[in-house]
Amino acid sequence: xxKQIQSIKTLFxxxxxxxxxxxxxxxxxxxxxxxxxxxxxxxxxNASDKxxxxxxxxxxxxxRMALMAHVLDIKNILESFKNKTNSxxxxxxxxxxxxxxxxxxxxxxxxxxxxxxxSSFRKSVVSHKGAIGLMQILPNTxxxxxxMHDHIDLGSSQQLFEPDTNIKIGINYLSYLMNKFENxxxxxxxxxxxxxxxxxxxxxxxxxxxxxxxSVMKNYQHIMSISGxx
Length: 230
Hints:
The structure is a single chain. The chain has helices spanning 2-57, 61-80, 82-85, 90-103, 108-119, 139-148, 163-181, 184-193, 195-204, 211-227. It starts with a helix and ends with a helix. It has 10 helices and no strands. Residues 33-45 have low confidence and may be disordered. By secondary structure, it is mostly helical.
C-alpha cells in the first residue's frame, strides 16, 4: 500500500514538473509571438505612412496606380532575394525605390540591378575605398548630391547606412550621371569609377573597364526575367 501511495506521489510530482515546464515554454512562446507582432505592426505602419505620402505627392490616379504596380513588382523581386533582404521591410523599401526612380525618370529595375551589383542588398557593407551601404555611396558624393536636393538631408556620413538616405542619394546621383553623359553605359561606368576618371579615359582613348557595366547588365537581365519582362 505504501509503495502504491509513493508511486502516486511520484506521478503527481512528475506531472507537476511537466506542467511547470509547459507553462514556462508557453510563456516564452507567447512573449516571442507578441514581440514579432509588435515588430510587424510597426513595419506595417511605416509602410502605410509611406503609401500615404505617395498619395499626397502623386494625386493623379493613373500615375499612382502605375506606381503601385511598380511597387508590387519591386517587392516581389526583393523577396526573391529574401536571404539578402530579410533585415528590412521590403514593402517600405519598394515604395522608396519606385518613388525616387519615378521622380528621376529611371527604370526601378535598373536601380535594383545597381544595388545588387554594388552591395548584394547588404545595407551595412563598406568598401575598401570607404563607399557605404546599399548603393555604395562615398561620403563626399553623398554630401555633393545632398547639397543639390532639398528633399535629401545628409548631416553625417553615418546616415548612409540608413536605406532611406542611401537609396535617395544613389538614385539621384545615377540620374545626375544619366543627364550628364546622356548615355546609359557611360553613366553606369561613371557611377563606379567617378565621372572625372571616365572623362579622362574617354578623352585619351583608353580602354574602358567594362567589367562593372557587364555585371550590372547581367543583374538587370536577371531581375527583368524575375519581373516577367523578358
